[in-house]
Each structure stands twice: as C-alpha cells, then as structure tokens.
Model the fold of this input.
Amino acid sequence: MITINPADLKPNEFYRYMISTIGPRPIAFASTIDSEGNVNLSPFSFFNMFSYNPPTLIFAPTINRHGHKKHTLLNLEEVGEVVINVVNYPMVEQASLASAEFERGVNEFEKAGFTAVPSERVRPPRVAESPASYECVVRQIINTNSQSDNGIDTPGTGHLVICEVVMAHFQESIFNANGGIDQASVDLVGRLGGDWYSRANVDALFAVGRPQMGMGIDQIPSAIRNSAILTGNDLGKLGSCVSLPTTEKVNAYRASGILNDLFDEARKGCQYLPDLLHLRAKQLLTENKVKDAWLTLLAG
Done:
C-alpha cells in the first residue's frame, strides 16, 4: 500500500491521483447564457445528483490554470439558469471539443457542431443530441476557493453550483417497452484520468441485486469464507442469504446426483473435492444461482 499525504505534493500532482481513481465520473454538459445573450457550452466531470425531492443536481467549475473563473461560472453569476445535458458515446468527441478554452462569447454549440434547442423554463438552450437534458434554476453557488497571497483564486479550487431541475427532456429512443429507461440504450460515458473515458454499453453493464438483511459474511463457515477460489463478490452474494440451507436440503441436493461428476473426479483423479465444489459454486454464483451454490458448497 502506498500512502500519500496531499500536503506533501503540489495540488495538481495529487489531482492526477484523484481523477484516476475516483470515477468513472458522469459529465455535466452545461449550457449557460450571459446577460447579453451569449451562449456557452462546456463539460464538467465534477458532477452528480444530490437529491430527488426537490430534484437537485450539483457540479463544480474549477478555477482554470490561469487563476480565472470559467465562462460557465461567470455566466451563472449573471444569469442563474443552466441546462445540464447528459453526454453519451455518440457525442463524446464533440463534447470534448467544446471543453477547449475558447474566448468568452464564442458559441461552443457552433464550434462543436451541436444543435441548440430552445428551453421551456430557462433561457439557455439545450443540446438536441443529448439523450437527456435537465433545465435547472441555480439555487446556490458556494465558493470553496482558497486565495493566494496576491488575492487571486488558486487554480484547481472551485465553486459548488447547486441547481434545481424545473423541466427535463428525454429522447424517446432510450425508453424500454415498459416505459422505463433502458440503460444500454442511453450509452453513457464517464470521465477518468488523463485522456481516458469509460462507456456504459451492453458488455460493461451488470446488475447487483438490492441488499437484504442477510446472514452476513461473518456467519459463513470459515472453510468457505477463507476459500482461495471464492472472491469477495462471491462471498457478498452468499452472505446476502438469510440463513444456511438445512441439512435435509443439502442431503437431498447431493442425493439428486447433480454433483456426481465432481465426486467421481475427486475419487478417481487427483483433484481436491472442496476445490471442485468451490469452482462449481463460483460458476453458479456468476449465474446468480445463490441457493444452488450454497447447496453445492455444503455438500462436501
């Protein structure tokens, strides 16, 4: 384990460790407008949802490397409204282009080739290409900056922008037959460190069942808990069960013959029976057949 005190490094050096290990971070593609009607569009990965009643989003424009406020923040100080557009894979390169430090007043919708659509409740337009857009009113801007000796904001520090959603827009293509959002269809991307992003496409998606008050990993028999084959994720699934199967159920499972091939292999070969049972249970757990995995583990 490598231990680092942030105080021992320059802020931008520790920043690289943070952005490479905290993520993938969702991207707020924020469209804003200044008091003269000039539109700005810029992505921010210091972003997330904060509450749902009222629906609240937060993001943080940091002070740039020159010690200046970003155009998004300057606009919000003049017009406290923003549209937070979600970024997905088909638009990620264009969104990246919009992050370049164009002069204030330059319209990134035009520079990055996006379609501006008038909003219904706020003045900034939304991005037509985004799978989901949230019209927001800024409720609070919290200054978290530290200033240098000359009074200039320190690069990397920021302002926390708290926004209430007052209207939302979703592309029809991301809905499933039941009227819910199909996660695979959204095709979201997340920000990582350096030039890296992640993509939440079909191959990368997986489900984790909602937790229940199970027995816990501490109640799993030590021979299973200390297995060299089962992982922490495997034990998590096993520990979510309320109780161990009864002896009668274990005996009936073994008597069914479903494990005969493993017992035969252990008798005739040089395989260790507990290892064979743990390997079979591991496969069952990948198929979310937790009860069968328990019956297999206890059959030995």
